Amino acid sequence: MVQKVEYAIQDRYPDDFSWCYGCGRLNKEGHQFRTGWEGDKTLTYYEPESDHKAIPGFVYGGIIASLVDCHGTGSASLALHRKNGFEPESEEIPPRFVTASLLVNYVKPTPEGTILKAVGTVEEIHPKKFKVAVEVFADGDLCATGEVVAVVMPASFGAK
Fold first, then answer.
1. pLDDT digits (tens, 9 = 90+) for 2-30
2. Which of 17, 53, 83, 146 keeps 20 to 30 A from 124, CA to CA?
3. What pairs with residue 125 in β-bridges?
4. CA-CA distance, 157 to 140, in Å (whole number)?
5. Distance linking the first and last C-alpha atoms of the chain
């Protein structure tokens, strides 16, 4: 059974901001990570493709870094959206974040052929900057940890 986040914050990003290779719902070649709430934690499930390998049997670390990155910015968006009184299943457009810094620690090799589960905890909230701790699990085993500092995308970004 494929696990999936039902109400993902990425579903509410405007089309102009939905092309990220990691989490863009409109990027058919990308990973299309989906981040949602599970209580007060954030959650993303992802099953790497067979060509996402480092060596036979193990997932390429860049995929893990991409998962941590997009999960972190999605978690920040969820947190600010909730702080503003909304949830991802509502129609309101959520704030969009970009990565200010990314730290990934590889705890153990990540095996191929399993669904990865990223769990996020929003640790710091400032008016424009959020810090999110991320843990990545494969079959219940912790494979990587990370920290994302995400900043609110300026309203003028992408303006035409």
1. 588 999 999 999 999 899 999 999 999 99
2. 17
3. 130
4. 39
5. 43
Q: How many CB atoms lie within 10 A of CB 19?
A: 13
The secondary structure of the chain, three-state, reads CCCCCCCCHHHHCCHHHCCCCCCCCCCCCCCCCCCEEECCEEEEEECCCCCCEEECCEECHHHHHHHHHHHHHHHHHHHHHHHCCCCCCCCCCCCCEEEEEEEEEECCCCECCCCEEEEEEEEEECCCEEEEEEEEEECCEEEEEEEEEEEECCCCCCCC
Contacts with 141 (C-beta within 8 Å, 6 or more apart), sequence order: 108
144, 64 Cβ separation under 8 angstroms:
yes
The string of pLDDT tens digits covering residues 67-89 is 999 999 999 999 999 999 999 99
CB atoms within 10 A of CB 3: 12
Tokens of 45: 């499930």
